[in-house]
TrEMBL record, chain A:
Organism: Mycetocola reblochoni
GO molecular function list: cysteine desulfurase activity; pyridoxal phosphate binding
Catalytic activity: (sulfur carrier)-H + L-cysteine = (sulfur carrier)-SH + L-alanine
Keywords of this entry: Pyridoxal phosphate, Transferase
Top-rank taxon, per record: Bacteria
Domain (Aminotransferase class V): residue spans on this chain: 38-420
Protein name: Cysteine desulfurase
Known function: Catalyzes the removal of elemental sulfur and selenium atoms from L-cysteine, L-cystine, L-selenocysteine, and L-selenocystine to produce L-alanine.
Record lineage: Bacteria, Bacillati, Actinomycetota, Actinomycetes, Micrococcales
InterPro entries for this protein: Aminotrans_V_dom, Aminotrans_V_PyrdxlP_BS, Cys_dSase_SufS, PyrdxlP-dep_Trfase, PyrdxlP-dep_Trfase_major, PyrdxlP-dep_Trfase_small
UniProtKB/TrEMBL annotation, chain B:
One Gene Ontology biological process: iron-sulfur cluster assembly
Occurrences of domain NIF system FeS cluster assembly NifU N-terminal (ranges): 9-131
GO molecular function annotation: iron ion binding; iron-sulfur cluster binding
Designated name of the protein: SUF system NifU family Fe-S cluster assembly protein
Length: 434, 149
């Protein structure tokens, strides 16, 4: 790749390079409704490069066996690949391998923590789990901007335990006001569950500051890293969060695999959520003892090929360079927001141009429902997300029920951005809204 | 240019989505129902008006895409002719068949669906069938809630 030879590791990807990267993603080569596909829905799920698909297939062709069970050669190979994958993904986010629990997706990871805390609150887990026990008067704090995955499990947990669910409000520009957050975080706060990057506004939350506030009050912090882990360098240890989740399918890997990170000391003290095979040491007909983390949280046959494919995806991302992906998406995000801002009747949900943001932008189009916007864009081969993006409270906050979101990834070009901006400029005309 | 998009968004549909016939809930109703499309947040409340013999109109209030709003408006015109409950139920069934025809349309005698046939284009877009059906499903549910029905 001669075009990139004289670039430093923090220079953004270039258009030329993004076009080369696209060749690794066969799905992006197709025509949709007579137009070349412009895929701007990676915030929902990313596309997968050939090498990741091949690595998953290779596992089934050469190494498939049950992991952590049995002594034959294939079983040993599969176990080694599976555990190497864990180590790779752990290193990718700056944590230890025994601090990474495989889940189906981020949603399951959050539910795992919520149910484990619920189990601790019901008295499970012995003295070690005492620290997680919720009582009446305890509070769990979220924000108004959370994905339902980081809201509904906490509603359920507080309903089961008698604890109270509170939220940090979101400001008009999509940001969190640290002063208001500080007022809400108190010694009653037991857990703060917050997204790193909003999947609606693209706002990058001040996690370091929030963690410092939470820890000063003795609260734990769970980070929803769904929109950050795939897109920027992430060091969970440096951020000092206690738990974090993300999904493989949003970072070039297949569906069916996600990650829960928990600080070792916490995971070892937490009672299990799902129970059964592969997570026990001794089982009698009356009771059982459990393996340490992470196995304690991995009951039943695991998603082996998907985990291996996720490690392969991490390899791909690192070869391109997370700093460079981050810088490229920052550029694409600014280009998107500048383009949309210039269109009459299009309102940005979130920060305006010039403010740091992720490579995604949601808009409300005056007089045209998001569903119709999406249909118009689709007729031009442009794939975006329409609806509430699993964040109804945040949409209500902005006074809308639905919005249209364009979200970029490393394989998008400035041409893609210009295409969606141009099409968006035609929407109100088409529907007679001006 | 009669492409798929233009056949979905015919001018009649866009007009109905803006001048919404029957929009605004009226008092003196027989029954009402609320429907929500959770994927996009489209929402509608439909009220049935009429007497023992005929449903003579619907009034409704909703929020949603042009397809769901136009479909409610067109349904309102259809019901305003005055239909027996059997006739209305039949038309809802016919419209459902039209929505699920995947762009092929349906055979119908005497055009009982009236203007609603302009929504045939919706059936090519499986993700939009729910939008097209929203008001009709609310009407169907409202009928089952009528006293003594
Ligand atoms: C911020 C955020 N949190 C959580 C999720 C849930 O991810 P998943 O559906 O993969 O569990 C998503 C993705 O939809 C997201 O964008």
């Amino acid at each position: 790749m001669s075009s990139t030879a004289d670039l430093t590791p923090t220079d953004p990807i270039t258009d030329v390079e993004a076009k080369q990267l696209r060749n690794d993603f066969p799905i992006l080569e197709q025509q949709v409704n007579g137009h070349p596909l412009v895929y701007l829905d990676s915030g929902a799920t990313s596309q997968k490069p050939m090498c990741v698909l091949e690595d998953e297939q290779d596992f089934y062709e050469q190494h498939n066996a049950a992991v952590h069970r049995g002594a034959h050669t294939l079983a040993a190979e599969a176990t080694e690949l599976f555990e190497n994958a864990r180590a790779t993904v752990a290193r990718f986010v700056g944590v230890g391998a025994d601090e990474v629990v495989w889940t189906s997706n981020a949603t399951e990871g959050i539910n795992l923590v919520a149910y484990a805390i619920g189990n601790a609150s019901a008295g499970r887990g012995g003295a070690a789990a005492e620290r997680f026990r919720l009582r009446e008067g305890d509070e769990i704090l979220v924000t108004e901007g959370e994905h339902h995955a980081n809201l509904v499990p906490w509603q359920e947990l507080t309903a089961r335990t008698g604890a109270t669910l509170r939220h940090i409000p979101i400001e008009d520009d999509g940001s969190i006001d640290l002063g208001r957050a500080a007022e809400l975080i108190s010694p009653r706060t037991r857990l703060l569950a917050v997204t790193h990057i909003s999947n609606v506004t693209g706002v990058i939350n001040p996690i370091e500051e929030l963690v410092a506030l939470a820890h000063a009050s003795g609260a734990l912090v769970l980070l929803d890293a769904c929109q950050s882990a795939p897109h920027r360098p992430l060091d969970l240890r440096a951020l000092d969060v206690d738990f974090a989740v993300f999904s493989g399918h949003k970072m070039l890997a297949p569906t069916g695999v996600g990650v829960l990170y928990g600080r070792a000391e916490l995971l070892d003290a937490l009672p299990p959520f799902l129970t059964g095979g592969s997570m026990i040491t001794t089982v009698t007909l009356e009771a059982s003892e459990y393996l340490p983390a992470p196995q304690r949280f991995e009951a039943g046959t695991q998603r082996v090929s998907q985990a291996i494919a996720l490690a392969s995806a991490v390899g791909y991302l690192e070869a391109v360079g997370m700093d460079r992906i981050d810088a490229w998406e920052a550029e694409l995000g600014q280009r998107l927001v500048r383009g949309f801002e210039a269109i009459d009747g299009v309102r940005i949900l979130g920060p305006s141009a010039g403010v740091p943001r992720a490579g995604l932008v949601s808009v409300d189009v005056d007089g045209v429902h998001a569903h119709d916007v999406g249909q118009y864009l689709d007729s031009l081969g442009i794939a975006v997300r329409v609806g509430h993006h699993c964040a109804q409270p945040l949409h209500r906050r902005f006074g809308v029920t639905a919005s249209t979101r364009a979200s970029a990834y490393l394989y998008n070009t400035t041409e893609d951005i210009d295409a969606v901006v141009a099409a968006m400029g035609e929407v109100r005309d088409y529907f007679g809204a001006k | 240019m009669a492409n798929a998009l233009d056949s979905l968004y015919q001018q009649v549909i866009l007009d109905h989505s803006k001048q919404r016939h029957g929009s605004g809930l009226r008092d003196g109703f027989l029954a009402e129902d609320h429907q929500l499309n959770p994927t996009c947040g489209d929402e509608i409340t439909v009220r049935l008006h009429g007497d023992d013999a005929l449903i003579t109109g619907i009034s409704w209030e909703g929020q949603g895409c042009s397809i769901s709003m136009a479909s409610a408006s067109i349904l309102s015109d259809l019901v305003a002719e005055g239909l027996s409950r059997e006739q209305l139920a039949e038309r809802i069934e016919l419209f459902r068949a039209l929505m699920h025809s995947r762009g092929k349309g349906i055979e119908q005698d005497d055009e009982p669906l009236g203007d609603a046939v302009v929504l045939e284009g919706v059936s090519k877009f499986s993700a939009r069938v729910k939008c097209g059906m929203l008001a009709w499903v609310a009407t169907e549910h409202a009928m089952t809630k009528e006293h003594g029905a």
